[in-house]
């Protein structure tokens, strides 16, 4: 090994990057970030994937890849899901852990379709476009919300949805996708969990249907009690059945997804794994066909390496640093950003002060989780750091602004304005209740903030820092033990926030947001 290669090798070891990457192979997980409930298609030599971001806005991210490994966000299916109090964080309501869930991505007759559903509104939504990367999107919606459904365009021109948990149902849709055809609902499979046994905790759900060589293959996830998330596949000669089922994979809980093929004729299954506080992370599993069944994995296991090109990293494809400088013809925000719930677009700008993100307060909020206009990006594993610089010269009494790690048990580092004085404050909600852990007086108008996350081997710890000059960093508060909670149902996210508890009308300016895959040595 040459000297430069040796240096690169030890650098990759140091930052925790899988060593197989240095050997020009892809590794699992293919995305070490929260990208759950994937649905994937291939159009010629290009792959597209949709995922779940629930209460985030815009929603249902569309990602693009040429090699199944290196992905970038190219669009969203919607700007806002709906204009209701829960999605707007109004009148004490919120949509944490709700909003839109698992989507289904399809391509039919030169048109792209993304369908999803929302318990928040009890509706099923279908978005369609000729140009998946640029839009525009047309939307139709109807009730009820069909849970974890799969949309399917059959060869005879009929359009179906399959959904349910345990007992799976099928219905035929109208040709214009505006609703269901009356009297077409039927039970498709009475007990889709049965191949995994009778002692089931999570009934079979997450349906995704595929047609290969004239046969129909229905993927579901189930979870036997005392076991792990399990892939179950049913197959049939007709879409209406009868279906026969089998357990297709039980390995580390890697499950829920479907099938994708390459132009060369190779097959993979895309699945995800619950991985603690970073969220639900995607895996690719080689597939071989045997006796008309897709056989997942190698000897029943998900391999660590894949015969695919290596990853170039998640920056800037899934997350990215931002200096908030915009040319007149550029979008206000790159696609890596999502708002926590629907934003109030009157209260933020990247144009009023060029090179800065301005967040204004427009109302009084009682807590961080109920504050509007928190701007977020995913955290990434196995470790990451997010930092920002903030100008706090225009804060008003009771304002709190800074950098967050967003989940139900959140952590914050920022500047508070109390009794006419500013302080750098760290808040931890690890106990379930926000607790101020440390406060430091601030006598200047610019402060630098940083949060570091260690997800390696499910450590799930975070530390917060501040700096007065941007070079010398000082720990503040206590370490945060990050926990993936079901009420939020999402991996931790970096967030830039500003809210008022007393006097609306103030504002702060964020100079940049930097994200890296490096953390301090004492955090590793």
Automatic annotation (TrEMBL):
The species is Thermophagus xiamenensis
Q: Where is the signal peptide?
A: 1-22
Q: Which SUPFAM superfamilies match?
A: Arabinanase/levansucrase/invertase (SSF75005), Concanavalin A-like lectins/glucanases (SSF49899)
Keyword line: Glycosidase, Hydrolase, Signal
Q: Does the keyword Nucleotide-binding apply?
A: no
Specify the superkingdom.
Bacteria
The segment(s) forming the Beta-xylosidase C-terminal Concanavalin A-like domain are 329-515
GO MF assignments: hydrolase activity, hydrolyzing O-glycosyl compounds
Annotated active site residues, numbered on this chain, are 37 (proton acceptor), 205 (proton donor)
InterPro entries (alphabetical): ConA-like_dom_sf, GH43_C2, Glyco_hydro_43, Glyco_hydro_beta-prop_sf, Glycosyl_Hydrlase_43
Q: What is this protein called?
A: Beta-xylosidase
PANTHER family the UniProt entry points to: BETA-XYLOSIDASE, BETA-XYLOSIDASE-RELATED
